[in-house]
Design goal:
- The chain is of the alpha+beta class and 670 residues long.
- Among the domains are: 76 residues, no CATH class; 89 residues, no CATH class; 112 residues, no CATH class; 115 residues, no CATH class.
- It is built from 25 helices and 16 strands.
- The strands form five sheets. It has a six-stranded mixed beta sheet with strand order 11-12-13-14-15-16. Strands 3-4-5 form a three-stranded antiparallel beta sheet, with no helix packed on it.
- The longest helix is centred in the first third of the chain and has 19 residues.
- It is globular, with a radius of gyration of 33 Å.
- About 26% of the residues have low confidence.
């Protein structure tokens, strides 16, 4: 989803006010320009949208770094404009003249005696910055008294030889009419929409705030389009409802289009939602600028997908907390709340998702595996090698992340339905009773789709919440649980488990095998062997059913527990459709992957040698780790001291027995 200019601009202002501690100003801004679910509340995401990461890093190493992004941008443009010093002085001189005249109109006409300054100001006025014209019929004005007319005039006195003796720049106040009194009470603001939604500014306010400018043919086209919109609304439309006074005001604003003349008008047309729980994507804000022939739509524009949006309710939130945490009175840890699927900026590891702290590694590694599958085997350009694909562009890796999220959710919904959880930025229900509120599930709206194409479009539209939003990891986890349990709350996930009371997020905030399996294979089963296993307890003929993997997998899993004979990983996970594996070692999940199809061979006796790449998002990895695996080269691994063998090598040997692993000058991970 492309961020709108309006939302980015508002976010920059909010970030500046926040860093400066101007809380009352922020409150006033939020009142008059409310936030939406497209508002950007993350500085890192804002830097990426503005493409100022390099400026930000450069600012951090300064002896006195600036604290706000706005100051960083302004400083950059100020320093970048030093080479064009003359143009800057011209603009500054004219701006000073304008300000002085506004503050002291009695001193006009303002005479600039300095020849250079006169020339600079004249050039500025006659250039691209501003066009001099008469307010009426575009007739060049003659020198007149400043107190009778308004505008900015150039008074040139010509002597008998035809040479200009002097130029006087006369800046005068426009003729003021009695101001229209507009009440500013709170109820009036609510009626105007200032408290509850986007603001529709009146033409009178727009004309008072903006200077007169030339309006060409596009103005006529836009005015015609505006009149058409109003006429289509009819007397029963939301725009026409209200008191007789509001209808009269609307008629006056429309009539004002005929009389406003060349003045510029900026109008915001608000299309309110007709139902309390309509899809947020139904709301479209058309910002009409008379100087532009196009209409700029905000990022919440309606797409073609058929998602049905519904806000989270307390019952569903309680079920989710019980499934994820074990109880509705527990809260998500800060490690989970602050984790998103943010990519590394290290050149050789641009494909890697960075983990901030321990805990959600199982979710990150699972999505990382699907991102690599998309990047290396499904989304690769025909002119690009797989090795080159490991250095993707921002757009390529974001696209692969969108496709990976969609695939995980679609499989969790048994390839018939899926649900996507989105952070709206505001509470959608008021918690009560024993439910413990923490500002996470209370702000979620869920969108359900019944086609893969619609799901991909929906995820792509909101991918920034997963890539850079603070709740990205939690949103994905909640979406997977809801996709698996669309019709049964959280019951269906519990039916997958061996023990129905198992929480998907275990002790110390670690991912359980059930959660990893939900993301890898679409079912929250408790085991990794193939099929189900029935255990006979021997007492009274009762038995216990242990549930495993029942279908081939696109990405696999290798576990150190198999090396210690705690359990066995089945062929479905050992031999996935693509050479990408999630690795479980030392209570931590990471990723192992290859670039060649030969990696997937099942014949251990073959003489094979291939490379595998290892990535751990939590290890602050700064370089590529490439392992060379040699299969069928002997039994030397049995002679090695197991205490000195890296756990990763032991995991690899659960798939390729007695394989030799070379680290290629990389320090082995012990």
């Amino acid at each position: 989803m492309v961020a709108s200019v309006e939302e980015v601009s508002a976010s920059i202002v909010r970030e500046y006010l926040s860093r400066k501690g101007l809380k009352r100003t922020i409150a006033c801004m939020d009142e008059e320009h409310p936030r939406t679910h497209s508002s950007i509340n993350n500085r890192s995401q804002l830097r990426q949208i503005l493409h100022i990461e390099d400026l930000y890093r450069k600012n951090k190493v300064e002896s006195s770094p600036l604290r706000t992004l706005l100051e960083i941008i302004v400083k950059h443009h100020i320093e970048g404009g030093k080479d064009d010093k003359t143009a800057g002085e011209e603009s500054e001189s004219l701006a000073s003249a304008l300000i002085i005249s506004r503050l002291s109109p009695a001193k006009t006409p303002l005479q600039m005696n300095d020849t250079n300054t006169e020339h600079a100001a004249a050039s500025f006025l006659s250039g691209d910055h501003m066009k001099l014209r008469s307010p009426i019929n575009d007739v060049s004005p003659t020198p007149i008294d400043a107190d009778k007319k308004h505008g900015l005039w150039v008074d040139s006195s010509v002597n008998e030889t035809g040479q200009s003796k002097s130029e006087h720049f006369v800046i005068s106040e426009p003729e003021k009419k009695p101001p229209e009194i507009i009440p500013r009470s709170r109820p009036n603001r609510i009626r105007r929409g200032m408290m509850a939604g986007p603001i529709a500014s009146t033409l009178q306010e727009s004309n008072r705030q903006r200077p007169s400018r030339r309006v060409d043919a596009p103005h006529l086209l836009l005015r015609k389009d505006e009149e058409t919109r109003l006429s289509q609304g009819g007397v029963n439309s939301p725009y026409q409802k209200g008191s007789e006074k509001s209808r009269s005001d609307t008629a006056e604003r429309v009539q004002g289009l005929e009389n406003v003349g060349p003045a510029r008008q900026d109008r915001t047309i608000v299309r309110p939602k007709t139902q309390p729980h309509d899809d947020l994507s139904e709301m479209v804000l058309d910002d009409v600028d008379d100087d532009l022939p196009e209409l700029s739509n905000m990022s919440m524009k309606k797409s073609n997908h058929t998602a049905r949006g519904h806000p989270m309710d307390q019952h569903t939130a309680s079920e989710l907390k019980a499934v994820l945490l074990g109880s509705c009175v527990k809260c998500f840890s800060v490690e989970w709340r602050n984790q998103a699927f943010t990519f590394s900026e290290t050149h050789d590891l641009r494909y890697g998702i960075v983990q901030k702290k321990g805990g959600p590694c199982g979710v990150l590694a699972s999505i990382q595996a699907f991102v690599l599958k998309k990047l290396l085997f499904e989304n690769m350009d025909s002119s690009t090698t797989r090795l080159q694909s490991l250095r993707p562009t921002n757009a390529a890796r974001r696209r692969c992340l969108s496709l990976a999220v969609a695939e995980v959710l679609w499989r969790a919904g048994e390839e018939t339905k899926a649900t996507l959880a989105i952070n709206t930025g505001r509470n959608v229900f008021t918690p009560s009773g024993h439910y413990k509120s923490e500002g996470v599930l209370e702000k979620i709206t869920c969108f359900s789709v019944d086609s893969m194409k619609d799901l991909q479009m929906l995820v792509e539209q909101h991918i920034h919440q997963f890539e850079t939003g603070e709740l990205g990891c939690l949103l994905l986890t909640v979406s997977a649980v809801l996709s698996r349990s669309i019709d049964k709350g959280g019951v269906r996930v519990r039916e997958d488990m061996d023990v129905a009371t198992t929480a998907l997020i275990g002790a110390h905030g670690y991912c359980t095998q059930e959660l990893v399996n939900l993301l890898l294979v679409g079912r929250a089963v408790s085991n990794v062997f193939d099929g189900d296993v029935e255990l006979d307890s021997g007492k009274g003929g009762s038995s216990t059913l242990l549930k495993g993997i029942k279908h081939p997998c696109n990405v696999g899993l290798l576990s150190l527990f198999e090396h210690y004979n705690i359990f066995k990983v089945g062929d479905y996970l050992k031999n996935p459709g693509f050479p990408v594996w999630v690795v479980c070692s030392e209570s931590h999940f990471s990723v192992l992957f290859g670039l060649q199809g030969e990696v997937l061979t099942n014949r251990d006796e073959d003489q094979l040698e291939f490379d595998l790449y290892y990535y751990d998002g939590l290890a602050n990895q700064q370089e590529e780790i490439r392992l060379t695996v040699s299969v069928g080269k002997g039994k030397s691994s049995q002679d090695a001291d197991a205490d000195l063998t890296p756990p990763l090598e032991l995991c690899i040997r659960t798939r390729w027995k007695d394989a030799l692993v070379g680290w290629n000058d990389t320090e082995p991970i012990l």
